[in-house]
Amino acid sequence: MKAIVVTDQAAGTAGMTLVERPEPSAAINDVVVEVRASGFVPTELTWPSTWTDRRGSDRTPTIPGHELAGVVTALGYGTTGLSVGQRVFGLTDWYRDGTLAGYVAVEARNLAPLPGDVDFPEGASLPISGLTAWQGLFEHGRLQAGQSVLVHGAAGAVGAVVAQLAREFGAYVIGTGRAADRQKSLDFGAHEFVDLDADALDDLGGVDLVFDVIGGDVQRRSAALVRPGGTLVSVVGPVEARPTDGRAVDFVVESDRAQLGEVVQRVRDGRLRTNIGTVASLDDAVAALNPTERRTGKTIIRVRR
Ligand SMILES: NC(=O)c1ccc[n+]([C@@H]2O[C@H](COP(=O)([O-])OP(=O)(O)OC[C@H]3O[C@@H](n4cnc5c(N)ncnc54)[C@H](OP(=O)(O)O)[C@@H]3O)[C@@H](O)[C@H]2O)c1
Predict the structure, then answer these.
(1) Which residues pair with 211 in a beta bridge?
(2) Which residues are CB-neighbours of 226 under 8 A, at least 6 positions away?
(3) Which positions carry the signal peptide feature in this UniProt record (predicted)?
(4) Which residues lie with the beta carbon below 6 Å from any ligand 1 atom?
(5) Hey, where are the domains in the chain?
(6) pLDDT (tens digit per residue) in 18-66
(7) Which letter does DSSP use for residue 204 in this model?
């Protein structure tokens, strides 16, 4: 099968190459999925799991990409809940070969059925952004209707879903980003927008929840805005600043079939819009994943039609 591989951490996405790799086989409780569309998070090539296995041994050449939508082609020993020919989408194990390939082996529990009226690129754009937003807002952030949420990077892949879900849930949503992101952030559900380069974050007063996808100085300034009893949720590693009278949580997204179902149902009934910036074929994936100018929204690789 065709696959994108990486072997050199220092090279980043520029080190991606399109090669032939053997097709994976299904282990216990796995399915093999014929990948139709794949999602890739640009920071993936900095994660240790891209380069080493769970024991810390080199696992290159690595196939990156951990989001997929596709069709089940084989079941492993003992696998239940999915069937050959079924349309699925979901999130694959960080430590296994990923989805920028013709086929991927993945534990069935990490996948959910993809309804027939949601196309494969849309399906592949949802698992990381959708689950991260859901878990950050509702599990870790314990969001309540009527609360205020500061959503950093609200025009980005994760932020656009956070803004939409928070608004649907009855929160007051303040989106942030660069000046060029203002209209897109408002379109994705923010009630107001803060340009992080030009506006003063500190003028906001208090918020109940900060959802941080940026970190560094932005996170440090945001921690001070959390109201007593509020929460700062970070998806960019250990928190660097804690609210004085609130919680701080950092987490890595996990797959969850029921939550995938919640997210995709919202796409079907129009409550949630996907944030896809670029769709490219697997043959063009290396160029698409090495853009020469700024892009917003997710890059989806259409592996097979
Ligand atoms: N822990 C987890 O489970 C988890 C899950 C998903 C994602 N993540 C992490 O979350 C981060 C965001 O992911 P994503 O897919 O949403 O990325 P993305 O689509 O690039 O969105 C990030 C947005 O924030 C903006 N931004 C970044 N730094 C900024 C700054 N200093 N000032 C103003 N705007 C800024 C970006 O603009 P520019 O493009 O112009 O920088 C972009 O619009 C990544 O680091 C990713 O690894 C973690």
Answers:
(1) 151, 233
(2) 206, 207, 208, 209, 210, 232, 243, 245, 246
(3) none
(4) 41, 43, 128, 132, 153, 155-159, 177-178, 181, 196, 213-214, 218, 235-236, 252-253, 294, 296
(5) 2-126+274-302, 129-250
(6) 999 999 999 999 999 999 999 999 899 999 999 999 999 999 999 999 9
(7) G
For tokens 């890059």, what's the residue?
299
The model carries a pTM of 0.98
CB contact at 8 A, 191 and 173: yes
Query: What element of type H or E holds 211?
Result: strand 207-212
- Cα dihedral sign for 161, 169, 214, 47? negative
Terminal CA-to-CA distance of the chain, rounded, Å? 15
Q: How far is the CA of 213 from the centre of ligand 1 (A)?
A: 5
Query: Nearest 5°: CA angle at 166, between 66 and 193?
Result: 100
Fold topology of 2-126+274-302 = Quinone Oxidoreductase; Chain A, domain 1 (3.90.180)
> What distance in angstroms lies between residue 196's CA and the mean position of ligand 1's atoms?
13
- Is residue 212 within 8 A of residue 234, CB to CB? The reply is yes
- Write the residue with the smallest CA distance to atom 12 of ligand 1: 213
Q: Is the pLDDT of residue 14 over 90?
A: yes
Class of domain 129-250: alpha beta
How far, in Å, from the CA of 135 to the mean position of ligand 1? 17
Q: Helix or strand or coil: residue 265?
A: helix
Q: What confidence tens digit (pLDDT) does each residue in 253-277 have?
A: 999 999 999 999 999 999 999 999 9
- Nearest-CA residue for ligand 1 atom 46 is 43
